[in-house]
Amino acid sequence: MVASNSRRARAARRRKRRMDGAQNDLTTQEWTAIRALWGGCAYCGASDRPLQRDCVMAISRGGRYTLDNVVPACAACNASKCNDEVTAWMRRKRLDERAFLERYVGIRAELLEASANSSSVDAAPR
């Protein structure tokens, strides 16, 4: 039991160091927009459960909580994916990886365009 607790504590400290070292700039407004565009879990489509922020590229693999790396995931998908590479995980779970990737690219482009437009409006002289 002691070894398990210390292992968990070390893992928590490693995660905290990774999080502190990464630039995480996802705003509440961006998260709201992401959830609205996906309309449910990005992986399984569930819309009747609370959604969590999931990094497509895991924090442990160099990912960050940013507009172009976060998708909504139900707790079951988020826990199952853990820090796996998303396409390998989807293949293993027999989920439609092509449909996910096509939708991810489309939604990501829409979000980044909206973000760029709002940035240019904010920067415009008045």
Automatic annotation (TrEMBL):
InterPro entries: HNH, HNH_nuc. The keyword Thylakoid does not apply. SMART domains: HNHc. Residues 29-79 form the HNH nuclease domain. Residues 1-23 are annotated as: Disordered. One of its GO terms (molecular function) is zinc ion binding. This is HNH endonuclease. It comes from Mycobacterium yunnanensis.
